[in-house]
Amino acid sequence: MESIFHEKVISNALKVWGLELILFNSPEYQRLRIDPINERSFICNYKEHWFTVRKLGKQWFNLNSLLTGPELISDTYLALFLAQLQQEGYSIFVVKGDLPDCEADQLLQMIRVQQMHRPKLIGEELAQLKEQRVHKTDLERVLEANDGSGMLDEDEEDLQRALALSRQEIDMEDEEADLRRAIQLSMQGSSRNISQDIPQTSGTNLTSEELRKRREAYFEKQQQKQQQQKQQQQQGDLSGQSSHPCERPTTSSGALGNDLGDAMGEEDMLQAAVTMSLETVRNDLKTEGKK
């Protein structure tokens, strides 16, 4: 009954301006088959809510007071918009007659409006603002929590970095220890092999220090012998140029043979020891590299 009362009140108020209300979906109006875009204004009612859809200039606007602002409606969408309102239960009235002039209508006769964003319902906008505030507070809480956790993460990263460095140092120490152990074992193995193959006068295994000393003695002995041989050769050349070309320096062949035999025995022994030591070290290093 209130809707009918409001309709009568609005209809009587519009008659003062020479305007008339006609129900949009009434048989009388439908028989006229008028395109909605050729009208000037519509009044829409649902329960106690009333709003106007009006043409200002050459464009249609939804002047619903529940929106944050006027909503631009294209000519092609106007008929669909009115049909949607009818499905939602709205009563639509066509305003017939010459509408009074207004400043907005005069301005929009000269320019056209381009609306980038559709207006929202006032309640919807308030709900979105409230939701944004909630999200903002939640985001602030998360950021505060992240500040604390960020410090923890940095501490954890420093700890992981320190552990990695310590592991690398331990690995390097282990590799050095393994290398020293491999060299020691190779030297021990080579000295044992030499002691088994060559009879020793002392009856004990040779150590690395003894091998080093023997090698130095051998090299010194070899150098002395080379110097002696050079001196003897020079003397032989000088004597050959004199009256005795076929004579040789008198030496003890037996003593020289014994010295050469001893030198060859020591040379073979030292050469075998050095070769075995180098091969053992190379094999150990290759095995470590494969691991």
From TrEMBL:
Keywords: Hydrolase, Nucleus, Protease, Thiol protease, Transcription, Transcription regulation, Ubl conjugation pathway
InterPro entries documented for this protein: Ataxin-3 (IPR033865), Josephin (IPR006155), UIM_dom (IPR003903)
Top-level taxon in the UniProt lineage: Eukaryota
GO MF annotation list: cysteine-type deubiquitinase activity
Chain residue ranges for the region called Disordered: 188-207, 218-275
Residue intervals passing through the bilayer: none
Domain Josephin: residue ranges: 1-110
Ranges annotated as biased composition (Polar residues): 236-255
Subcellular location field: Nucleus
EC numbers: 3.4.19.12
Catalyzed chemical reaction(s): Thiol-dependent hydrolysis of ester, thioester, amide, peptide and isopeptide bonds formed by the C-terminal Gly of ubiquitin (a 76-residue protein attached to proteins as an intracellular targeting signal)
GO cellular component terms given for this protein: nucleus
A Pfam cross-reference name: SUIM_assoc
Gene Ontology biological process terms in this record: protein deubiquitination; proteolysis
UniProt biased composition (Low complexity): 224-235
Main location: nucleus
PANTHER family attached to this UniProt entry: ATAXIN-3-RELATED
Protein name as it appears in the record: ubiquitinyl hydrolase 1
Organism of this sequence: Piliocolobus tephrosceles
